Amino acid sequence: MIRNRKYLLAIILFGCFIKCERFEWLQDPDAKLRFSTDTVFFDTIFTTIGSTTKQLRIYNRYDQPVKISSIALAGGSRSVFRLNIDGVPGNYATDVEIPAEDSLYIFVEVTLNPNNIDSLLAIHDSIIFITNGNLQDVNLVAWGQDVHLINGEIIETETWINDKPYLVINSMLVDTSQVLTIEEGTRIHFHRNSRLYVAGTLIVNGTLDNPVTFQGDRLEYDYRDIPGQWDGLWLLPGSHDNRINYAVIKNGIIGIEADTLASFVIPTLELSNTKILNMSAVGIFGLGTTIKAYNCVIGNCGQFAVALLWGQSYEFYHCTIANYYGGWESTSRSNPAVGLNNYYEDIYGNIQVRPIDKAFFGNCIIYGNRESEFEVDIYPDSELNYELDHCVTKIDPKKFDLSDQSRFREIYNFEDPKFISADGNDYQLDTLSSAKDRGLDDYATFFPLDLNGKSRVDDAGPDIGAYERIEGDTLR
After folding, report:
1. CATH 2.40.110.10 assigned to 34-144
2. Where are the chain's structural domains?
3. Dihedral, CA atoms, 237, 240, 245, 248, nearest 10 degrees?
């Protein structure tokens, strides 16, 4: 019994010795922490709108625990940066422990104040660490951009210019009979769930070299092509004479929605030289409206690239409608690139038929990663007039009589247009594209320059789609 007690006591004492050795703090004044990066960098941040959260990891590479005497923002209470240190919000902490060969996280955010400066401004700070009297720091850098802030406003006639970006939060409305003109190079950014409503008129005067851009307000690299960041542009009943030229509309839910709702006051839109990309739902959503589009690219949309429903008139010339949402082998998209429909069921369960007078596609590409990228839903014994003339298409021949010249005049079905990079939203044509030189001259005469400003009428024939391939020329 005594022998067993001595043995047990020895084990306890040995355990205490090991435990004490294990938890003795590292006292070496030359000890250094290791960091996942020496600079936490934020891409352009708009004033008044907070950033995404960045993370910094701090490592203890030693076989003894380390106690950090203090962690603090150099800018103190005046800093625009905010910290969360090992799960605790706050810009200052003391006696922070890191076990042997372990680590902790610091999360960093920033919100910038308006600075009344049109150009970008670099904001600097640092996180200071003191361990055993040894000082180390990690840099914090954010590029700040002042903005014109539009917060849920109803605006009258005015002109926006390219001095500094416009930031829309809580949506905005162009009032009835009023005109919003947006000049070349202007950048409009929308906060999450925000939209541009137009009850009056929208005029976008972009140029080839300085397009007008509509996108979300996250400018970090990781957000550069993420759909669904903002709602989109919505032309309301009564909106008229809208013109959008040389614009880029990207990373939203619905690029352009033109809707009569319950009214028969028809919105009208002329859309030219415009790219609509990375929409989580629809690129162009026409609901009983009138749209004329040319030299446009509509691509990478989660549902339809173009949905034309419930009546009125639609014309597309030299447009590239290409939907590879989710990648070449994706099966996540159940809707075609182009869908036409002329009826709906109202809230009382009654079928409402609204004939489409015209849905015309001339010298257009309609292609993507589904088995068929063109579908029509016509209510029995009603009108839905559609025609495709000199188009590269992906249409299920089991669903359509492709020999019907009243509907399909010279189409090149299932002939791959061979884009430069559909995955990268580059829908310019490769040298082996089926769209080369096969367009109808009549349409090219009306639209002699392509989306890049190149001539369609100076070679063997106009190419189908928004881009003209000129061999030996440098792609824009």
Report:
1. no
2. 34-144, 147-446
3. -10
